[in-house]
Amino acid sequence: MIQRMQPLPLPLEGITVVAVEQAVSAPFATRQLADLGARVVKVERIDGGDFARGYDTAAAGLASHFVWCNRGKESIALDLKDPRGLAVVRRLVEGADVFVQNLAQGAAARLGLDAATLCAAHPRLIAVDISGYGASGPYADKRAYDMLVQCEAGLVSVTGTPGQPVKAGIPAADIAAAMYAFSGVLAALVRRGTTGRGGPVEVSMLEALAEWMGHPLHHAMHGGTPPARTGLAHAVIAPYDAYPTADGSRVLLSVQNDREWRRLAEQVLGRQELGTDPAYATNAARVTNRERTDALVGGALAVLTADEAVARLEEAGIACARLRDVREVAEHPQLAARDRWREVDSPVGPLRALLPPVGLPGGGEAPMGAVPALGQHTETLLRAVGMTDDEIVALRRDGVTA
Predict the structure, then answer these.
(1) Rounded CA gap, 199 and 128, in Å?
(2) 155: confidence class by pLDDT, cuts 50, 70, 90
(3) Of 136, 140, 171, 330, which residue is 20 to 30 A from 343 by alpha carbon distance?
(4) Strand runs (DSSP E) across 166-249, as ranges?
């Protein structure tokens, strides 16, 4: 008899997370935890909740940032300036494994919700402080928004064209901080499993994004010059750019070594002699003669459709891609072929969402829970921490909860 293996549980089943969070960095971090099976309780303000709820109405009436970062959570709306609202959070924390906050610098400490305070009171708790610039230093109290941190971390200086620096089109500083907070929680849970103790986790947006700047930083610090802004081109490799095709699309290609250049010259450009021409035979020569190199490649692709260009490049073993817009990504054939799309419930009905990129074969699929309405789970959570009907009525009457 062949025994059928029981599916593995989600890694964070049984873990409870309480988050006093807003915008992107903390909500995106805790969504990763929810996707792995954790129960995430999101504490929101009573006057509108997480302010990311109001960024736009693009997702069928909901804010696209909020839908992206907050599926699978339970929402409780509380006034933390009222001692009774703060007491509810403290009671929630008593039953939690993880606490995450990204309030303005100093706000959590004033409420007694900073990591150091909470971990001193609850030794098994893992408490995460996410800040813009860290808890000390001259920038500690400086307001930190994603674009500002992108500038302070130097990302904008290496992104864009020679004449125009630009910020990344996604909230890179927020995402960097979120992913380090996520991995920090996972590491702390492993440590707690061996020591029985939790502890603080600290992440700043600046330090997270500065780490992502590793290549340009090391290039500049250790004898090189800061990489130039080159648009879609590569600062030190050629050809490596996007080239227009006959049907109005753009195809990118990357030649990583001189062997690939010789294949490109023979099989795509139809100019075998370019493979050994001293003006093009080495990457250094091609970078020196970038304009002429790009003109040769661009001329060959300009008479082909995007489909023809990609087919010819792939046949020659040259790495290539299409320059897709966001709508095209939503219909990407690879994502469709791998069945990466699901529907998640929300206050406005089902919405498409991608499965999380971490796959765990042999276990259950990510739960992809609903996007919560503001305060949707308030009453349930108040009862769960032992509040009576009269106490709940009083909190609602006095505007402490919604």
Answers:
(1) 9
(2) very high
(3) 171
(4) 199-204, 240-244
- Segment 344-351 mean pLDDT: 97
User: Which residue among the candidates 215, 218, 222, 234 is catalytic per the annotation?
Assistant: 234
C-alpha dihedral, 371 to 373 to 374 to 376, nearest 10°: -110
Q: Cβ distance 398 to 67 under 8 Å?
A: no
Q: How far apart are alpha carbons 256 and 52 in whole angstroms? A: 42
Q: How far apart are CA 364 and CA 378, in angstroms?
A: 28
Mean pLDDT of 202-224: 93
User: What is the H or E stretch that residue 261 is in?
Assistant: helix 258-267
Q: For residue 363, give both structure tokens.
A: 């276990």
The Cβ of residue 92 has, within 10 Å, a number of other Cβ atoms equal to: 21
Tokens linked to 53: 């709820």
Neighbours of 400 (CB within 10 A): 22
Q: Is the pLDDT of residue 2 over 80?
A: no
Beta strand ranges found along 172-292 (DSSP E): 199-204, 240-244, 250-254
Q: Which residues contact 65 (CB under 8 A, 6 or more apart)?
A: 23, 24, 52, 55, 56
Does pLDDT of 10 surpass 80? yes
Q: Return contacts of 188-195, CB within 8 angstroms, 24+ apart.
A: 188/126, 189/12, 189/15, 189/97, 189/98, 189/126, 192/124, 192/126
Mean pLDDT of 274-294: 96
pLDDT at 192: 98
In one-letter notation, the amino acid at residue 317 is: G
Per-residue confidence at 223, pLDDT binned at 50, 70, 90? Answer: confident
397 pLDDT exceeds 60?
yes
Measured distance CA(201)–CA(71) in Å, rounded: 23
pLDDT at 224: 76
Given a contact cutoff of 8 angstroms between Cβ atoms, the answer to whether 125 and 93 are in contact is yes
**Which two three-digit tokens encode residue 233?**
């081109």
Provide the pLDDT for residue 3: 58
CA distance 389 to 394: 9
DSSP-assigned states of every residue in 284-305 = HHHHHTHHHHHHHHHHHHTTS-
The verdict on whether 122 is a catalytic residue reads no
What are 92's two structure tokens? 């929630």
Give the torsion through C-alpha atoms of 115, 119, 122, 125, to 10 deg.
70
